[in-house]
Amino acid sequence: MDFFDRFAVPHPSFLIYASMVGIGLTMLAIVVGITYFKKWGYLWREWITTVDHKRIGIMYLLSALLMLFRGGVDAVMMRYQLSMPENTFLDSQHYNEVFSTHGVVMILFMAMPFIIFFFNYLVPLQIGARDVAFPRLNALSFWLFFMGMGLFNISFIVGGSPDAGWTSYFPLAGNEFSTSVGTNYYMIAIQIAGIGTLMTGINFITTILKMRAPGMKLMKMPMFTWSAFIANVIIVFAFPVLTVLLAMGTMDRLFGTNFFTTDNGGMDMLWANLFWVWGHPEVYILILPAFGLYSEIISTFARRNLYGYKSMVASMVVISLLSFFVWAHHFFTMGQGPLANSIFSITTMAIAVPTGVKIFNWLFTLWKGKIEFTTPMLYSMLFIPLFTLGGVTGVMLAMSAADYQYHNTMFLVAHFHNVIIPGVVYAMLAGLTFYWPKIFGFMLNEKLGKWTAWLLSVGFVLAFIPMYITGLDGQARRMYTYSESTGFSAMNMVSFIGAAIMAIAFVLLVYNIYYSIRYSPRNIGSDPWDARSLEWATHTPVPEYNFAITPQVESTQPFWDSKKNGHQLFKGDIEKIHMPNNSGLPFIMSCIFFVFGFAMIFSIWPLAIITLIGILGCLAYRSFEKDHGRYISVEEIKETETRLRGAKK
Amino acid sequence: MKLKMKWILLTMVITISTVLTGCEPLLVLDPKGPQAKTQADDIMLSIWLMLGIVIVVLAILVFVLLKYRASNQPKDYEPPHIEGSPIVEAICIGIPIIIVIFLSIVSVKSNYEVEATPAGYEDQEPLVIYASSSNWKWHFSYPEENIETVNYLYIPADRAIEFKLYSYGPITSFWIPQLGGQKYAMSDMVTTLHLAADAPGEFSGRNANFSGAGFAENTFEVTAMTPADYLDWVEEVHETAPALTEDKFEELLEPGHLGRSTYTGTHLEFAPAPEHDHGSTDNNTNESEHEQHNEHESHDSDEHSEHTNH
């Protein structure tokens, strides 16, 4: 019986049983649906085995939206629990599991795939390439991420969720104090997804360095591609730290090592240090591409070129360098002494300078523009003041002596949501609305979109501004309850109302998608926003080879120049195009990884060894596989081009 | 429209200032000791400065959005191509740098202040209290008075207190908001927190760092009293409280919540604090560290040999 006991949820409740049933029924419905409509073959041929960067991007997008829903439900549950003193909606253990998974899901399984969706979809189009440098590796990246995500998400119905916070500080996360398999899920699932992300980093650095269209010098790249490049460089430097850290944590939990334990020479602050050596650059991996998207959107709807292109690039480079020298500001209170704290305090505040440069450059891009308030632009304009607020509270937190009072309080929680929601989430929604017509061939409804943006912002202000106040009043973060006498209840109720309004905004977003699928006009052409960079120069929907003829680039906004200044984008004749073949191997290998991860989490060693051999087998097979890709003939390209041109004007 | 913005800003400023300085002040901004005072001053200073920045950015944003909105311009207006100007860029870099330098100086100065014996109390020897956490309690040992308390803390007002922090288990954070900011308590080293209370009073304290299921209720009460009252209390404890035995202490360490309790003697006698902190010059501790290192190395090499066997 012992063997099966491990798979039971250690701390079940009605909510968990209900979600078990819910998940089971949904899975069943999906399987039945696909079988009924005979879509298994289509799914396998067109999606599961695909190596097309656009389709992989869309799969990242779907995962991100799914996880946004999951993390959002977690958030609303937490806010509801805290809206009243002594609330009994969640008990301590459940609350701890909910906030731990909320953090992991939102950062690693929502924000990360969302930005990787943009990398995938946009970077090859923006640089005029046919695909990424390693399409097969790209598919493997996605499937590893997907399996890691799946593994992490089954935790709350099989064996129990991690409950030591998204930072998973040891020794709390060690065997001594976390006895369920929850933290094993954390270690293994994030590891698998992280390997995928690391490959993404390598893939996109290579793509951007080697596959740009002729004439596109580094300093002529679109700003989003620049931000993607720098973010991927950070990925390649930061994620190995996470890999090593999770491996050490796994060894502590599964093999009895003592890296982070309370005795035998373990050092508990080692985890915190290494975690943030990865963790701080990680937030810049998220925010820089968001800045890139804002740059594209603001320049498009101000109808002007981006002001201060060079200083925009320089500021991102400076931010990326500084991001590796600030990690100790996450624990000024660890007792490093005033000298170390002063150094990290100053490096942290220094980040405000390049970030400020970016804010001012956006403001100057609006200067003398002809500003149109479309939905993406509305998000960007709400981003600037709200993100500034988050940025300046970051400067406040950087003052280490004062941080002794902010640390571990709701003030800190308010701050990082204040940068991540207007910074990253708004950028994702703005970017999604902006690129939706390019991806799916119709626009999202503008009116509903603007309502969403406003509701989201009102909800955001109500949800998070009160936290600054309760934080200064001594409300520690991660408390599952508090007593009436603390006086936190009014502010927390406001916070819950704000969270509920944000939830309504997300429902409205989903309704907008449904509404637009049904009613939005399809004859919008390939450039509905009158935009500036190369991704808008090809057809909608984008053919699998992206551009029939590789574009010629002479400036930072070649498409704009081709529309207004007579620049000729496509010179020469159509030639046959070399494309990579689809492959089921990345999916199969990732499935084996999933089983391997599961076996590791539950210490089922025979299965772990067999699946490990399976993974190595897949690698070996790939090494000896001969696959030279295929050619798309000139006739086929001409036919596609005529069809696409005919369909849209 | 412009007028409306002004009103919104004005209401914002008024609301913030009433909330921050209003009739019932927020704990952190209601300091009762020199360290908390330093921190509250820094916080208020930075709030006003940062509020200024937010207002400037907001004002520029509103201005350009109103002036350059498409509906405010002729149909055939074509926005110019502007690359950027070195002078404007220099101003955009220069002003933030000045602000950051100013805040850095404030920050560094305060760092050294909060990490030293509180200002104004340097002339007297600080009272040393060991505060150790276990799931989910606080144990306070007074080595000088030979007293130990659980979940409550009596301190003399008007005297510097030097807290020596460590943990039996997860990382915790010792925090009395009105006396000063927090510091971590960890299992393998001792950290030091300098606090002082200016006047007698009651304060709430808690563990601020998440430490598992019982974290929310991991609180303690602090009473600052006149030195005379404090001496009376010490005497009373010595007369009435039971002695702390090793068994009793083991029992106290069991995970759970406890009320207040008081003992004579401290657990430091039979379970000393993990004082092998880095930078310590104590010979003994260095040796024990060294031993641990050796253990580690041999452990590592064991693993290595296993690897090569495979």
Task: Describe what you observe in this structure.
The complex is a heterodimer of chains A (649) and B (310). With 649 residues, chain A is an all-alpha fold. Chain A has 21 helices and two strands. The mean pLDDT of chain A is 93. In chain B, a hairpin with a 3-residue loop joins β6 and β7. Chain B folds into two domains: 2-75 and 83-114, no CATH class; 127-269, Cupredoxins -  blue copper proteins (Immunoglobulin-like), CATH 2.60.40. The longest helix of chain B is centred in the N-terminal third of the chain and has 34 residues, at 34-67. Chain B has helices at residues 2-21, 34-67, 86-114, 227-240, 246-253, 283-309; strands spanning 127-134, 137-142, 147-150, 152-156, 160-168, 172-176, 180-185, 191-196, 201-207, 219-225, 261-264. At the A-B interface, α5, α9, α10, α11 and α12 of A face α2, α3, β7, β9 and α6 of B.
Could you give a quick summary of the protein structure above?
The complex is a heterodimer of chains A (649) and B (310). With 649 residues, chain A is an all-alpha fold.
Defining traits:
heterodimer; A: 649 residues; mainly alpha; Cytochrome C Oxidase, Chain A; 2 domains; two-stranded antiparallel ribbon; globular; B: 310 residues; alpha+beta; five-stranded mixed beta sheet; 6 helices; disordered C terminus
Mind sketching the topology for me?
The complex is a heterodimer of chains A (649) and B (310).
Chain A (H helix, E strand, L loop, with lengths): L1 H4 L8 H23 L3 H9 L4 H30 L9 H35 L8 H19 L28 H29 L12 H32 L13 H34 L7 H14 L15 H13 L1 H15 L8 H24 L1 H7 L3 H31 L5 H27 L16 H31 L38 H7 L12 E3 L5 H17 L3 H20 L5 E3 L1 H14 L2
Antiparallel strand pairs in A: 1-2
Helix pairs in contact in A: 4-5, 4-6, 4-17, 5-7, 5-9, 5-15, 6-7, 6-19, 7-8, 7-19, 8-9, 8-10, 9-12, 9-13, 9-15, 10-12, 13-15, 13-16, 15-16, 16-17, 19-20
Chain B lengths: L1 H20 L12 H34 L18 H29 L12 E8 L2 E6 L4 E4 L1 E5 L3 E9 L3 E5 L3 E6 L5 E6 L4 E7 L11 E7 L1 H14 L5 H8 L7 E4 L18 H27 L1
Parallel strand pairs in B: 1-5, 4-10
Antiparallel strand pairs in B: 1-2, 2-3, 3-11, 5-8, 6-7, 6-9, 9-10
Helix pairs in contact in B: 2-3
